[in-house]
Specification:
Layout (H helix, E strand, L loop, with lengths): L1 H19 L14 E5 L6 E6 L3 H4 L14 E5 L4 E6 L5 E3 L3 E2 L2 E6 L12 E3 L6 E2 L12 E3 L6 E2 L12 E4 L5 E2 L12 E4 L5 E2 L12 E3 L6 E2 L12 H10 L11
Parallel strand pairs: 4-7, 5-8, 7-9, 8-10, 9-11, 11-13, 12-14, 13-15, 14-16, 15-17
Antiparallel strand pairs: 1-2, 3-4, 6-7
Length: 256
């Protein structure tokens, strides 16, 4: 009888030890692709929660996805940023992607949209810090452009001859507006220059013959000659403010 009891105890212990290697404890992770099993210690109830797979391994994040319209752009990639070099799309509304190939788009290169006759609206993402020279030169259909607070520099002739552009707001983050940046934007009637801008180069708004409504900030310390030549600014206080910085900024340019 004792032998029978000992044999039974031995067999029972072996069964228990053999099962212990496959046992899943409460709250533990199961191997990838297998159900996650949890045990309620108070009730003994077993719950099977489905495969325990890391979502980041299976669902591509928005940051990793290429921009839907990236193929419309020519661009260059360096270690940590992307520069837009050109545009080959046909849409009249252009939304510049914030990222291409996972790199933030930080600058629009010289002449990137030069003489594009189709674009009516451009939305620039808040990753961009520089708008290069001649970027939108002679984009004669351009009616709207959104310049974000991230932009610190607008290059020479960047928007020159954009004759359909009726208004523009230049954020205070733009410290320097280059030579002839908005030269002969004849349809421009309203310009708001944000607090923080301190330097406007010569001829920046020269020949904007429709410009009557201009708001300039107290931060502005330098306005070079003929920056607002041949404009029709109506507000006397604004005119006096410009004259106090540089009277020649308002002088007419005879060959316009």
């Amino acid at each position: 009888m004792k032998k029978y009891i000992l044999s039974f105890a031995l067999i029972f212990s072996l069964i228990l030890s053999g099962c212990s290697g496959d046992k899943t404890t409460a709250g533990s992770k199961s191997p990838e692709g297998h159900p996650k099993i949890t045990v309620d210690s108070s009730t003994g109830q077993i719950t099977e929660n489905g495969p325990d797979i890391d979502a980041e391994k299976n669902i591509e994040s928005d940051e990793a996805k290429p921009a839907d319209n990236a193929s419309d752009f020519k661009y260059s990639i360096d270690d940590d940023s992307c520069m837009i070099l050109g545009y080959s799309g046909t849409s009249d509304e252009v939304r510049i992607p914030a990222k291409i190939e996972g790199k933030p788009v930080t600058s629009l290169s010289i002449g990137a949209f030069l003489r594009n006759k189709t674009i009516k609206k451009v939305i620039i993402p808040d990753t961009v810090t520089r708008i290069g020279g001649h970027t939108f030169y002679e984009c004669t259909a351009l009616e709207s452009v959104e310049i974000p607070d991230s932009v610190t520099y607008i290059g020479d002739f960047a928007f020159a001859f954009c004759r359909a552009l009726p208004s523009v707001t230049i954020p205070g983050s733009v410290k320097f507006i280059e030579n002839s940046a908005f030269f002969k934007c004849t349809g421009l009637t309203s310009v708001t220059i944000g607090e923080g801008v301190d330097y406007i180069e010569l001829h920046a708004f020269r020949g904007c013959t429709g410009l009557t409504d201009l708001s300039i900030p107290d931060s502005l310390t330098v306005i070079e000659d003929h920056a607002f030549a041949n404009c029709k600014i109506s507000d006397e206080k604004t005119i006096e403010k410009i004259k106090s910085i540089n009277p020649k900024a308002l002088e007419k340019y005879l060959i316009d």
